Predict the 3D structure of the following.
Amino acid sequence: MRSIRVIGVGNRWRGDDGVGPEVVERVTPFLPEAVDVAVLDGEATRLVEAWAEVPVAVVVDAMRTGDEPGTVRRLHVGVDPLPAGTATTSSHGLGVLDAVELGEALGRLPPTLVVFGVEGRDFGDGPGLSPAVADAVERVVDEVLTEVALQRAAER
Amino acid sequence: MTHRPPAGRTLKVDALARVEGEGALYVETRDGAVVDVQLKIYEPPRFFEAFLRGRSYTEPPDITARVCGICPVAYQMSACLAIEDACGVTVGGPLRDLRRLLYCGEWIESHTLHIYLLHAPDFLGYESAVDLARDRRDLVETGLELKKLGNHLVEVIGGRAVHPVNVRVGGFYRLPTLRERRSLRGELERARDLAVATVRVVAGFDAPDLTHHHAYLALSRPDEYAVMGGDVLLDDGTTFPVADVPRHVVEEHVAHSTALHAHLADERGEYLVGPMARFALGFDRLRPVAREIAAEVGIGPDERNPFRSIVVRAVEVVHACDEALALLDAYAEPDAPAVEVPPRAGVGHGATEAPRGLLYHRYELADDGTVLDAVMMPPTAQNQPGIEHDLFHLVEANIDRPTAELTALCEQAIRNHDPCISCATHFLDLVIEEVGDDGGVVG
């Protein structure tokens, strides 16, 4: 079984909500063999299933916190406190942070779970990222690759 | 101590939780009577219909699947039926059966998500699915297992679980292999057992008192519990072809919502679509195992308490599992994964039963297949006036209850209809504020 999974959350047809899938697409060619990728819509139970299968998961999702668009935050679950009231966006009833809490309640969190949130600006209909978010994509790709390298080093 | 309600109050929920999308509820009472109920939907209107114009007639199944992560199959199927209708092609036989099989997977996963994670917490007194999971891990685990089996069915037939990619106008891109079908069979037997257990669990939930008298509207077919195609049936026996939906249903803008409100064109006005309507109108065509479990727990086609919709949804999951098994057993390999659908100028209509209710699509095509116009009427837009009506009577009957309790009851009542506000357009918030006789806020 592959040991690291990179999960992009979001919908490319909802503006900046597409940042997770976009990062996954850009990062995929640079990932080592032992890493696989998934794109999900953020529905909590699917997320819980997707990360419960691996020891290390790296999730990228859009968020809406009031920060400057393009701001990137890193959350190492179990190490950093869960931010209160910081909603990663989802058009569904439960978002990524709900999924983290649900996973915790069910004992289905991977030993290592890192979430990158990218502040979005426009979640309207249609494809395409707003400029600040598009600019952040390369930075997040670097962050994800660094994270994967660190986690692989830690495994050895 | 008795609670004495103020003369007038306003119930507001600014961000309704556990619904698909974002919205708000506003209820105003004065002198013990309800004066206003508004289910507010204020996400920006969706422009999918505009995106479809100018596209090829082969594209709407993929584009409309993006409308909703919870019921993409419904969008794909309604789009396919409408486009095939415009082109004068009927997809029948084994390909139609395969579409029904895919649709079963969507019903299983969507209903199960709603039952266990969105609605059960209300009945069991939990704030959220997470709190429920902490105390009742067994229950949530059952829900997750059942939902996953539904996901897997969608994944095998639809190509992947989220926004299936294997559906096309005329049929599919690839057919499931024997091995895939065999693996599904065992899984669906397990799913059916879990679904039966689910009915027994949710039938034991206390349902608050409420009786509604909305007109019910659903697809109807003589040969099956209708999911795809057939005619539209109302509970007074009126029936009309899907192509006549625009003549019988009027959609209008209301100031407090970005979703269109639908009502019947004649004096019957508001109506409901969804599990309660399907169950009432198609009960005798449910799979026998579904009817048996319904009888065991004492729910039948005359049920009019919307708080019992969770039981109806669970019975529909049993039906969907058993129907999927029957379809797998009767599977005959189609000659090809899809039939040819040559384009032609025309207008086509298609309707299928999304988990939340009837989803109608209409397309107008040019002779080369370019989409000239597209209309989608999602179930939540149709149910919005009925939901407001339920809330009106619920608040009226429970006006003496404390505001927090009443607000929670209203939220639960909204969830009776599993509104997919993302589809209808889009987010829900509840506001409950007490307003004095002078109109000032007292609470």
